[in-house]
Amino acid sequence: MVLVCLVALGFACLVPGLLRARLETRLSAAAETIVGAPVEVRCQALGGAFVDAGADLGYVAFGPDGVPERATLIKRNQCRDLSAYLRSSKESPTNEQVVAVHVLTHEAMHMRGFKNEAETECLALQHDAEMAQLLGASPEAARDLAVAYWQNVYPRMPAGYRSDECGPGKVLDARLSGAPWSVLETSLRKAGHSLASSVSGRSASASV
CA dist 30 to 26, 45, 86, 174, Å? Predict the structure, then answer.
């Protein structure tokens, strides 16, 4: 009986580590596509979270030469939210899940070599739709997530993470189809086309 209890206890202690390793593998694969090079995404363990007093949600170390490590640490809560997002339908993510996906994208931008936080943040939000798709979201759900971050979270970020040059046609516009402002522009064009078609259809019916 004692042996059975010890085995069960050992298994219970092992499971969280195995689940975290599985999650890290999935997140690393998505980040690698964004970065364009092999990277490692690590999720903060319980012990690390217990002694962590930092406010950052993710971290990439830069060397004295300004070159980033190809590794990032994502905080425990954000990894938990990413895990929940991966298990979900991804159609209606919580605000915490939207932020967690963006944190992964943001750290991927750092691993690409961008150091300035405002520039990194702006480039990341333009890649959020791509990241969401890499994590299993449909194209439409991925675009909605990017727009949600842009409209609901980015305006409330600290000043050091925002830039007046982040927007359509501005200096930091990477002109990506997944950028939230590009998504909104496309939606408005489609809505306008649908409205015009509807009006045209009613006019044709009235003339018959």
Answer: 7, 20, 12, 20
